[in-house]
Write a structure and sequence with these properties.
By secondary structure, the chain is mainly α. 50% of the residues lie in helices and 7% in strands. The strands form four sheets. Strands 1-3-2 form a three-stranded antiparallel sheet. The protein starts with 12 loop residues before the first helix and ends with a helix. It comes from Fagus sylvatica.
Amino acid sequence: MHFISRSLSKSKPHSQSLPHHQTLVDPTIKFVRDRGIDHAVEKEKNLRPLLNLKNLLKSEPSKSVPISIITQKRESLQIPFRPIDFIRRYPSIFDEFLPGGIGIHPHVRLTPEALNLDAEEHLIYQSETYKQQVADRLLKLLMISRTNKIPLSIIEHLKWDLGLPNDYEKTIVPEFPDYFQIVGGRDRDGVLELVCWSDELATSFIEKKAMMNRDSGYEKGMSIAFPIQFSRGFEMDKKLKKWLDEWQKLPYISPYENASHLPPKSDESDKWSVAVLHELLHILVPKKTEKDNLLYLGEYLGLRSRFKRALLQHPGIFYLSSKIGTYTVVLREGYKRGLLVEDHPLMSMRNRYIHLMNIVKEDSKPVSVPGGNSQKKKQTVHDEKGKGEEDESGEEHEGELYDSSDAEVGNASDKEYDDDNDGNKSQRGVRKNVADNRGRKDRKTNLDVKGSSRKYEIERAVGRQPGKTKEKVPSEVSKRAKMHGGNNVLVSSCERSSLPKSRWRSLPDKRTST
């Protein structure tokens, strides 16, 4: 690879002679969700804290850690809720045990399946090909910076999306002394500094693509049109379409050139800012990152306001998802039908972790009873769908990032409490309606009577009759229930009796199946 030194004050002459103008004023661009990209973002929820905890367990000599220690390090591990609940949510990854049979300090260790994945992940990080790719990404990031240096604290924010190993300061930086070096120590005050400029790597992804297309006849300084992909249902007015067509015809200024002389609110500056964001997201392995990460970097580069404006004005290039409690900026062309276009070994490994996270062990599965928990599962899916729709309401407004998960949990709990009270009132109403209105053919009353008769049948299924304390010989239904798990029938009946009225009605009628 050929390296040359570069003067920081150098800038291309063609960029200085561009006419500066702005044609789009106060754009009103409506946000439209992209369910495919939202799913790609949402499926990685809790993956990062899970891998943080996995790395902590692996680093210990005993390969295990007391739960109390994990609780103390919850913030640094980025665990979103109670560590014990987080651990028990993923039994295929974490194993809770009592060392030496002493029930005082429970410990956590990795399951054999998780250890196998960790070993394969370690091989990826140790491969020479992967190290070279990581070094190239870091070098490109440094060349985009006008000062050719970036604080380690900012790289820490981008480390996950750059695909850097946790100890990159010790494993990657020393192996590429011609690329970069750390100045000022390896703490948060340290800086990663460029050593040599590379013309070969100082070519953006979209420029390479244009050069490979021989029919385009592209030369440095010509215009390049960015790929545009709008969400289904997006409507563009004539004013916006006209502006976008003219904007695409503007000359393309490389993100590796210094274009700070351009007026901040000009269309030329806007296209250069889009070029910088476009290249940054292409450098990242998953072609996405949290909005905060880009704004932290943008503030250091002096481009924070330009980044925010570019994200708002170009929904066909960048997509903002709020599915995991924060805004995630996604490069649209990096995904197709919700899947990452580029096949990367690290992303394949992360997908395998996600698959293992979603596996539930057999011993933790509830035993299914005929007519048992199917309705409860349906209601859970319905509740999750409702929660997702609530999340959509906040996506049309651009502002500071927020985490609304606690508020949603509180609202869900209040709603559940109200539903339970309504269910209890409805049961008292059923008894009164059955006694006073036996001759009515009203549909609601008939449904309530069916609910009461189903309760009668359930009591018969567990071996007793209403109003009698004498036990009865178990019926055929209870015999079958005992074969499937014994006391689960009683639990199921209790769950049904506490269900709200709307859920109770939809339970299957056991009289037809007995």
